[in-house]
Design a protein that fits this description.
Oligomer: single chain
Shape: elongated
Number of strands: 12
Strand order of the largest sheet: 8-7-6-11-9-12-10
Distance between the termini: 41 Å
Strand content: 15-25%
Amino acid sequence: MNTQKTISSFQNPLIKKVLQLKEKSRERKKTGQFIIEGQRELELALKGGYSLDTILYCPEIYNGNYEFSDLSSTVIVLTRPVYEKLAHRIGTEGILAVAKTKEHSLQSLRLASDKPLVLVAEAPEKPGNIGALLRTADAANLDAVLIANPKSDIYNPNIIRSSVGCVFTCQIATDSSEAIIDFLKKNRIKICCAALTASKNYTASDFTEKTAIVMGTEATGLSEVWLENSDENLIIPMQGEIDSMNVSVSAAILIFEAKRQRGF
């Protein structure tokens, strides 16, 4: 790495900026920047076309061998106390970066497949669930993940961490439920809603055509606007005492049934 300087003070303006980006969604939105931590996540971000403004690492901790010298990023050394103040994870790898956000509008979405399979998550609240949904989307190589009425920005450090970097590998768009429904209808994508009422067994659905699998929150399920515009309501039969599962588990079951029907 081509290092330019070492930072050892918590009062350094860059350190204060990194902390703001880590902790405040408003700062991420205002600056168009966010924080990536960990070598695997950095490599996935670079592979996903993200631009790294600044790379910060602690030589006492970092033992990776990734070569960043061919990037235009500024590279800075941090002392261990400063790095540990910035680090989000316990057992961290000693490297993080300030990166530029991407646009995630429906207008910028490109569905390369002629029979796309997409996941829609309405108003997901828990970063861990969003991260798990993105991991599943990556594992299934979905065409897109659409987040309706988002409650948090996708560059929240907890989402990046729980997605193990899959936030960078998935094509993501965010908008209102109404706008996403309009997008799906214009593209003739069948809307399949996970719901408890007026539903059929998910294995009876045909997922081989253009399909959107739509998931609501664990607490309240999907809003009326989705149920009113649903082409099919799907249910996963339960054999125990409760009537629902974690949203990411339910999504995985539906997604991989669709992948099975499509021959993986």
